[in-house]
Amino acid sequence: MMNSLVVYFSKFGNTKIVAETITETLNSVGLVSILSATELAGTDLKEYDLVLMGTPTHNMNLPKVVKPVFDMLPKRCL
User: Which residues constitute the domain of residue 31?
Assistant: First the structure.
């Protein structure tokens, strides 16, 4: 059974809706957890077989609040 994690950042709620839809779909093939990017700190990603991360783009780049989330992840954890 696959263990998945869906991580998202959503300023206006649209990306959250997409993340919830992906989570519902993945429930058919295994266990799925969903976290906002701000809740990711301290999460052990090694327990997951699949990690999906989604954010909107702002000025063709990651939102400023998301970059620190990626920077805090241990090297080679994904």
Answer: 2-72
- The count of other CB atoms within 10 Å of the CB of residue 44 is 8
- What distance lies between CA 21 and its chain's CA centroid? 13
Determine the Cα angle at 39 with ends 77 and 33, to 5°.
75
For 1-78, where are the alpha helices, taking DSSP H only? 14-26, 67-72
Nearest to 67 by CA among 37, 33, 36, 35: 37
Prediction pTM value: 0.87
Q: In this structure, what CATH number is given to the domain that contains residue 32? A: 3.40.50.360
What would the pLDDT profile of 38-77 be if each residue is shown by its tens digit? 898 777 888 899 999 999 887 888 888 888 888 888 777 7
The enclosing H or E element of 6 equals strand 2-8
